[in-house]
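Structure, all two chains, one model.
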Amino acid sequence: KQEVTQIPAALSVPEGENLVLNCSFTDSAIYNLQWFRQDPGKGLTSLLLIQSSQREQTSGRLNASLDKSSGRSTLYIAASQPGDSATYLCALPGGGKLIFGQGTELSVKP
Amino acid sequence: DGGITQSPKYLFRKEGQNVTLSCEQNLNHDAMYWYRQDPGQGLRLIYYSQIVNDFQKGDIAEGYSVSREKKESFPLTVTSAQKNPTAFYLCASSLQGPNTGELFFGEGSRLTVL
């Protein structure tokens, strides 16, 4: 059974710092992995989707990597800004549905 | 604009009442999903539908019902049998199943039982 873990649960950084969010999964036979952002009281916004054949995807200041052999994905945020403050979730398919991590709540201080 | 529309955004219900949450998408996606989000519990799948007129129970389907009569619509009914319905409900869709494509979410509906 696929399990997804995100550590840490919360992270606070000063503005301008580069940072890495982690996502671990137990079954390496995955089709893809998706990173989302959720602002308080809002729905989830898709950030990046990495197919199993890819090692990374980039969008602006965001870079997501995938290492199936170690069961890990990272989301790198460059030059963080207060507007990046949100909860970040990773998710991947398992048993015909998407399985989510618990998320990392990021706070970027001005 | 293409996207997923959930309504209402906020809903209050008295105990014992059924309530229906609307989810409409104009992305021409085959698959649609309902998730429930509670503080500290993450997202849990209630129901999903891969195609019109077909749907499957997720992890926490008890006390909920759905229908999929049209490709673009997947309403969720929270029945009086749901013991703890106060939560944030999220609807999502994908082109095909989650194995093949990106999932997109609506803005959510917050249900409060008084």
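Chain A has a mean pLDDT of 94.
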